[in-house]
Amino acid sequence: MASQIERQTQTPDYNNKRPLNIGAVEADLADFTDADREAHDETLLDITIPELQAKFADGTLTSETLVKYYLRRILTFDVDGYSSVIELNPDALEIARQCDIERDTASSEQGSMYGIPVLLKDNIATGDKMHNTAGAVAMADSHADRDSFLAQKLREAGAIILGKCNLSEWANFMSFDSANGFSVLGGQTRNAFGMYDVGGSSSGSGSSVSANFATVTIGTETAGSLVSPASQNGVCTLKPSLGLLSRDRIIPISADQDTAGPMTRTMTDLAHFLNVLVGVDAHDAQTEKASPLAETDFTSYLDTDALKGARIAVVAREQDYKKGDGAFLDAAAGKLMTLGATIVRVPPLQMSMNFWNLYYPMHAGVNAYLKAIGDERTLSDIVAYNEADLANRAPFRQGLLHLSSIVPLDAVTLKAYERIQYHNKSAARHAMESIIRDHKVSAIVDINNYATYAYAVTGNPAVSVPTGFRDDGEPVSITFFGTYLQDPLLIAYGYAYEQATRIRKAPKLVLPSERKSEQ
User: Fold this and answer.
1) How is 214-266 classified by DSSP, letter by letter?
2) Is the pLDDT of residue 268 over 80?
3) pLDDT per position as a tens digit, 206-241
4) Are 241 and 293 in contact, with CB atoms under 8 Å apart?
């Protein structure tokens, strides 16, 4: 079987990739050239949300200029290059101009996300001119009936929804053999740092924020789909406690595990961004369970001393597990100790689980989503549509989608699913909680998304922050994970580690013509 990077560099021959529609913004960018973009790189590359707000306040920057900057970077590097953006909001510049007017005339202070450009993964609904497709040809013309809860929260905060991000089609539940970051509509997303695995399924969200195509992005995860692309593209993410962020109008896989999450270049941005995303939503009952954190100011946990006195478990992996993962964990353990933490080395989490337990919720969830937006089709209809032209609608085939579509939606199957899910949760919870209890630690640390089977299944949080680069330049991150609703503490740990290491660096992007010559 081909490796992930082999699949990502050998894009199949098919004819349904949808070109990025730049018609709505091209004329507006006539006065913002590549030379203008290069001039702004010095001050806007990897800029944080507080720094942007300071520039807005002193009049040295407008939201309109910031949007034009990101759009020019997308048109220069992303189109036929990184392919991380699947659709642009045709109203983004008009919204930015309105933000600038209101900023100058408003009598009250706006929040930190006011006038900030955001990209959303293309399975998160917006009730505007943009589509919500999951990257699928069958959903190419699909519009949501209204904003998702997250999109609504962004608009209320004055954020600018710049567009949608490419993804692994159907959030990586399409095919057994697909490439991370590939969707038929969006093509193959590329890693911001070079010819490395881009990670999935929030590939476009991770690559685009790393490449400075927006200030921040939102991805989604069922198991590893936030943490993996964040680690692979050298950015930060929070896989939240289940229910901290609403799943309303997000194309689903499993309500027992699905969550959205912020993807940012810094932990500072993550905290500011998270503040406007959380909230109890009547459309998602799980948000009630996370309501103790609904009014949290996550920026108050940005504490460089957060690790002093902490007791942290660091997974002990063999040095040759993958390109020196053991060495990265050893170095991270050493840095954590210099920050005042006591380190306990523990073996990788062990558990017996059924990993193919998502067919039933995928079938039921997609059918429910389609019905909610007024689409009369079912998942079975979509599979049949793809089957009529597999080469152009499902070039990696659709084994996972097909198996999901034939699982009966009856009480017997539901009971079987619930039994397996109960077993998985119990096994994962025992594996995590036994380490936390027996070693008296407040969090566990591992590389990338290696432990996702534990915290994803339990609905527990995880924070991923860059920790270094492999010898060939591939980014790598460590991930802090812990118990339910421990999100603020993990953010504090991630921030303290980030500030002490300052590993993040902006990738050196190449033009599409140069990228093709690399392959």
Assistant:
1) SSEEEEEESSSTTHHHHHHTT-EEEEPPTTSS--TTB--S-TTT-EEEEEESS
2) yes
3) 999 999 999 999 999 999 999 999 999 999 999 999
4) yes
CB 204 within 8 A of CB 135: no
CA distance 109 to 157: 11
Among residues 261, 285, 250, 231, the alpha carbon closest in space to that of 468 is found at 231
Neighbouring CB atoms inside 10 A of 144's CB total 22
Q: What's the pLDDT at 317? A: 86
Tokens of 81: 């290059």
| Cα–Cα dist 232/345, whole Å | 24
| Integer Cα distance of 61 and 105 in angstroms | 16
Instruction: Report the pLDDT value the prediction gives residue 303, as an integer from 0 to 100.
Output: 98
Average pLDDT, rounded, for the chain:
95
Q: Are 241 and 144 in contact (CB under 8 A)?
A: no
The residue with tokens 């707000």 is 53
Residue of 79, 1, 69, 81 whose CA lies nearest to 519? 81
CA–CA dist 120, 220 (Å, integer)? 9
120 pairs with which residues across the strands? 164, 218
Cis peptide before 201 (omega within 30 of 0): yes
* Residue 151: partners with Cβ closer than 8 Å, 6 or more residues away: 120, 124, 125, 126, 127, 161, 249
- Are the CB atoms for 124 and 221 separated by under 8 Å? no
End-to-end Cα spacing for the chain: 20
> What is the Cα–Cα distance from 278 to 421, expressed in whole angstroms?
26
SS3 56: helix
Residue 275 near residue 466 (C-beta atoms within 8 A): no
Global model pTM greater than 0.90: yes
Enzyme catalytic residues: 121, 201, 225
Phi, psi of 258 (to 5 degrees): -65, 140
Q: Where is 182: in which H helix or E strand?
A: strand 182-183
